[in-house]
Each structure stands twice: as C-alpha cells, then as structure tokens.
Specification:
The chain is an alpha+beta fold. The chain is 24% helix and 36% strand. The protein contains 3 helices and 9 strands. β4 and β5 form a beta hairpin. The longest helix is centred in the middle third of the chain and has 10 residues, at 51-60. It is globular, with a radius of gyration of 14 Å. It starts with a strand and ends with a helix.
C-alpha cells in the first residue's frame, strides 16, 4: 500500500490487541512473543508470527490502505536474542525482548 490510515487502524486493532502509537508507526502485540508494526507509508513488519498469522494481519488492514499493491512484497529474516545487537547473514540478534528494539530494526 502507499499508506495506512494509522488513526483508524489503531482504533480497530485496540478492540482485540494491545496497541501503541509511535511517530509514523503503530505497534500491535499480537501475543506475548510476537509483534506487528504498521508504518504510515504502507509497510507492515511482523516479528514472531507464522505465515498464516501474517497473512491474517494483511487481510485485516486492507480497509485501512490507500493505493494497495497488486502483489505483496516480502522479505524474511530470522531473529534471536543475545548480548548485543548484531546482524549475521539473515539473522538479527537482539539484545532485549522489548518492542522498541524491534521497532528500531523494522
């Protein structure tokens, strides 16, 4: 999508999930171990969700998109936790379990 209406999306998601707004982004805790970030410029980033759960979020936000893409563009990375932030091949190693660490990478 070219963009998301984050205000309306936030109101909708807060009915089911814990959600927090940041500058140009919306964070949704899908579960205790997973996070989803929506950016005003039309990007959705999922952490710790199955492919089925990711596609469910894509469907949920369709009505909040403007100028949707004809096909979904996807990148995949693994992540784990360690002593400090690093990128090894296609794996992010995060120093903390908090959402702000994931937001900074997203």
């Amino acid at each position: 999508a070219a963009s998301y209406n984050l205000i309306s999306l936030s109101a909708s998601l807060k009915k089911e999930f814990a959600a927090a707004s940041y500058r140009e982004a919306l964070h949704c805790s899908a579960s205790t171990a997973s996070d989803v970030f929506f950016f005003s410029y039309g990007v959705l980033v999922c952490w710790g969700l199955s492919e089925e759960e990711e596609l469910d979020f894509v469907k949920r936000v369709k009505s909040f998109e403007s100028d949707p893409l004809s096909r979904i563009e996807r990148d995949f990375y693994e992540f784990s936790y360690g002593d400090h932030l690093q990128l090894q091949r296609d794996e992010f190693i995060l120093p903390m379990h908090d959402a702000l660490s994931k937001l900074s990478i997203s």
